[in-house]
Write a structure and sequence with these properties.
With about 160 residues, the protein is α+β, with helices and mostly antiparallel strands. The protein is about 30% helix and about 30% strand. The protein has three helices and six strands; from the N terminus they run αβββββαβα. The protein has helices at about 1-10, 100-125, 140-155; strands at about 20-25, 30-40, 45-55, 65-75, 80-85, 130-135. The protein has a six-stranded antiparallel beta sheet. β1 and β2 form a beta hairpin. α1 (about 1-10) packs parallel to α2. The termini are far apart. The relative contact order is 0.22.
Length: about 160
């Protein structure tokens, strides 16, 4: 599955990825797709892929991002995996030697399966390396914080 996720991501990631940190893709009938390169290393990249919903009812410039997938791309191994669908990803400890391993593997499998299906859907909609263009700015932390606040209010 991780090899298939990698293959599908290559259909979305443009060649200019070395020169820009943020990309956007708009196709008819689909919300704006955003991709930010969060980290670059010799053989790995860490990226964020999300829809960017403009909300006209809210204040100017406010938007909602969802599903907010954080993805680790291993170029040398030709694999990719989702690390989180949560904007708070760095704040929660998901693994520890004392945690039950079976549950961690099941969680990882479910997240990667969801990413695989979403990437297939994006490609079917028409998102590709041609529609993915450099964006002026990255998704801001304020947008992530608004998503966190929205999620917290919905869970109460």
């Amino acid at each position: 599955m991780q090899a298939e996720i990698y293959r599908q991501l290559l259909l979305l990631i443009p060649d200019q990825v070395a020169h820009y940190d943020s990309f956007k893709s708009r196709v008819s009938g689909s919300p704006l797709l955003r991709m930010d390169i969060l980290e670059r290393h010799a053989y790995t990249q860490f990226l964020r892929l999300t829809y960017h919903f403009e909300n006209s009812e809210e204040k100017e410039g406010h938007c909602e991002i969802s599903p907010d997938a954080h993805i680790r791309l291993y170029r040398d191994a030709r694999l990719a995996e989702v690390t989180s669908f949560n904007p708070q990803q760095g704040c929660t400890r998901l693994a520890h030697p004392a945690f039950p391993q079976q549950q961690l593997f099941q969680r990882s499998w479910r997240q990667n399966l969801a990413l695989d299906k979403w990437l297939g859907y994006l490609i079917h909609q028409g998102h590709n390396v041609i529609t993915m263009r450099p964006a002026n700015n990255m998704i801001s932390n304020n947008q992530s914080q608004s998503v966190i606040a929205t999620m917290a209010s919905k869970s109460v």
